[in-house]
Specification:
By secondary structure, the protein is α/β, with parallel strands linked by helices. It is built from 14 helices and 19 strands. A hairpin with a 2-residue loop joins strand 12 and strand 13. The longest helix has 19 residues.
Length: 497
């Protein structure tokens, strides 16, 4: 959900063809220039789009050790650091490459602190390949870079002024991320036999501290850059300044984590990382085990319910999540987002029927897209494009959501933002209603004005759709930080009493 279930490319193409007209230009929002038509959005890429601002090293000087195999890489808690290229990238046009390659990424804003050295690379160079992978867009770059670690030497293909060259590049470690005056400790947990990187942010003082496990939305991205750092780093910093520790867990193969490639894992594998993170948090002597909370964002809300069902917690908060039947969620999003884009409503009857048929076969019958298209080629344009593996979403589909939420026995905060076009207002109202039915007096339900699905500020849903397509990320809105902090303070004070 954090990767935003926007209309797929196929859906937009079909609706455009059916109307024989391009999608209309969106109306400008107050105080902005006219907005270009909304294009389909790719899932959040795990690549490093640009060098972040100079990070603050952990205040406690976390133990660093040189990896003897890779003299310039840094080991933290036994895990080699991920690599950073240290530049920004934009897709290369066909005219620029003039047939020299099928695609590539134009290099710019070389920081000098990454693997791309300014004496070797310059603005306007085009990255065509890294290791064994052709680089055509940000997702391919992210997947290629995820296979390597700092200290390794990889071959890259560079286009410059019509000439393609192969260069050896020594990968440099990603700089440490942190927050002014706060401690961020790099650790790891084992999930299904593979280590996952953890980032523990601690407030001032010796503790024991109340703590929050931050459970992230769907998609493959690192917590140390871009969207992952802006959103979840923003929550971690704010919580620490309010006196709460927090733990973030990198997904499989993302950041420094090892394991199965993120785009191939199932939902159960993803949940295992957060289970291990919760156990590690409770085992830390600096943490008050009676005041450990969960915060689940988007798909992380469903993971939150699963954890709270099996492990006692002091309370849980969710934002932008769901309780609907999965296919109903997909169909409702199809209709809502189509209407946002001014699609003629009369086109939606046939399209929703076809989409319903396709989704039923994917989710209920567990068929592959290839099997479906072989028997019903007319459904090819109606298969949802997912930001993670099909197996991941088939496993989500199989979760008995009402029963799971019922078993998640703890005080709950249910939040939805009025600019969230990905998660549903009705889902949150229903979730709050049923939780209150099961556990009267334990539920707080809030609708946050002007907060979008990424927990950032946006005046309305249409503006949020535009803003969420921009690279990088935006910090959480003060409204959600204050709502979460106030709820935590209330429960913590109640526990103290």
């Amino acid at each position: 959900m954090i990767a935003s279930f926007l209309l797929s490319s196929a859906l937009l193409a079909h609706l455009t063809a059916m109307t024989s007209a391009a999608l209309p230009t969106l109306a400008p929002t107050l105080g902005t220039a006219p907005v270009a038509p909304v294009a389909p959005v790719a899932p959040v890429a795990p690549a490093e789009p640009a060098e972040p601002a100079e990070p603050v090293a952990p205040a406690d000087g976390s133990a660093l050790a040189l990896n003897p195999a890779f003299p310039e890489s840094v080991l933290l808690d036994g895990l080699p650091r991920r690599a950073v290229l240290g530049a920004s990238f934009t897709p290369a046009s066909e005219d620029l490459l003039a047939g020299a390659a099928d695609g590539g990424l134009v290099v710019s804003q070389i920081s000098g602190r990454g693997s791309f050295r300014s004496e070797v690379w310059r603005d306007g160079d085009v990255l065509l390949g890294l290791g064994e992978h052709a680089i055509t867009d940000m997702p391919t770059l992210g997947r290629a870079l995820a296979e390597h670690r700092a200290g390794e030497v990889v071959s890259v293909q560079r286009w410059r002024n019509g000439v393609v060259q192969t260069l050896d590049v020594e990968l440099r470690p990603h700089p440490l991320t942190g927050f002014e005056g706060l401690r961020v400790e790099y650790g790891s947990v084992l999930a299904e036999g593979a280590p996952r990187r953890t980032l523990l942010t601690l407030p001032e003082g010796d503790g024991p501290h109340p703590a929050v496990l931050l459970i992230h939305g769907v998609g493959c991205f690192s917590l140390e850059s871009g969207l992952g750092l802006a959103v979840y780093g923003g929550f971690a910093e704010d919580l620490a300044r309010r006196g709460y520790a927090s733990l973030r867990v990198e997904k499989s193969s993302m950041g420094d984590s090892l394991g199965e490639p993120c785009m191939q894992i199932g939902f159960d594998t993803e949940v295992s990382g957060y289970r291990a993170g919760l156990a590690a948090l409770k085992a830390d002597p600096r943490i008050d085990t009676e005041r450990v909370f969960l915060f689940g964002h988007s798909m992380g809300g469903i993971i939150t319910a699963l954890l709270a069902k099996d492990e006692p917690v002091a309370g849980y908060a969710v934002f932008g999540t769901g309780i609907s039947h999965w296919i109903a969620y997909e169909i409702n999003n199809l209709v809502d987002q189509s209407l946002m884009l001014n699609t003629p409503p009369e086109l939606l009857d046939d399209y929703t029927q076809m989409r319903l048929r396709a989704s039923y076969q994917l989710m209920e019958l567990k068929r592959t897209p290839e099997e479906i298209i072989a028997e019903e080629p007319q459904l090819e344009g109606f298969l949802q494009s997912y930001p993670m593996s099909l197996r991941y979403f088939q496993e989500v589909y199989d979760i008995p959501k009402f029963a799971t939420w019922k078993a998640a026995d703890a005080p709950a905060l249910v939040m939805w933002g009025t600019s969230d076009f990905v998660a549903k207002q009705r889902d949150h109202a229903i979730l709050a209603q049923v939780l209150e039915t099961w556990r009267p007096g334990s539920v707080t339900h809030l609708e946050l004005e002007g907060v979008d699905h990424h927990a950032a500020a946006a005046p309305d849903m249409l503006s949020a759709m535009r803003l969420m397509q921009q690279p990088g990320g935006r910090p959480p809105a003060p409204a959600i930080l204050d709502a979460l902090g106030s709820w935590l303070d209330e429960l913590s004070a109640r526990d103290d009493g």
